[in-house]
Specification:
Distance between the termini: 43 Å
Number of strands: 7
Strand order of the largest sheet: 2-4-5-7-6
Bound molecules: adenosine-5'-diphosphate
Strand content: 15-25%
Structural class: alpha+beta
Largest sheet: 5 strands, mixed
Oligomer: single chain
Order of helices and strands: HHEHEEHEEHHEE
Length: about 260
Amino acid sequence: MKERVPVPDSKDEIAQLGILFNEVMDDLEQSFVQQKQFIEDASHELRTPLTIIQGHLSMLNRWGKRDPEVLEKSLQASLKEVERLNALVAELLTLSRAESEQLPAEGLEPSLVNEVATLVSNHFQVLHPHISLQQQLFPEDARIAMPARYLEQTLIILLDNAIKYSPTEQPSIAVRTAKEDGMIAIHVEDRGMGIPAEDLPFVLNRFYRVDKARSRKLGGNGLGLAIAKRLVEAYSGTISLRSTEGAGTTVSLTFPAYTGI
Ligand code: ADP
């Protein structure tokens, strides 16, 4: 810790105040550094689609009026990038809100774990009839102190990844809920490509992608797991990943059971 104001070598209120001041300044500095990094990372990510759109617009400007093939190709490519930009901005907003703790207070709106897990799984099965989606839920439903819409958002991110990174005709995915050591656990398991051991410690960091080009092609911005982590941790939960390259990935969420009325 930097000593911004000298702290007298005594145990009185002045010394206490000095220590407190230095701690507050440290926290402030750390939060400024983090914000600056966030803005730098976000700007960098926003630039990629913008540069691609710019490229296509100048192609259109030069050749598009005479060449219908260029016109069609560049228009489609630009539209796709605008779609990506939109999704990226929406994800950045969610992450920023989750990071600045603008979320409803814990315990105010508990959710039923099995109910939400079933809802999201059924929704995915309808949207992606080709996947084999198993549900194994504990017998009696339990509540956790996370609002249903955030638990839904988290499970959507995990199921979306399980499908995206399962490069087979029929991705096999399981959603399991369990009571483990007095905690409520939700596991999303796939048999997809897995994550190399050297990347595993970093995939929860924002903008981290194992294979940037591949993830981008699949529509990923490297923000999904960072958003999931912020949301889960805001409601006293934890998120962890187990993965074997070439064999599959299990993402596990754990929460204390909600005991309020
Ligand atoms: P993205 O939007 O790129 O998918 P995420 O933050 O959700 O970003 O995930 C970060 C990276 O972790 C992904 O780019 C991918 O490389 C890897 N990853 C996430 N989930 C899985 C999974 N279920 N199987 C394999 N790799 C995964």
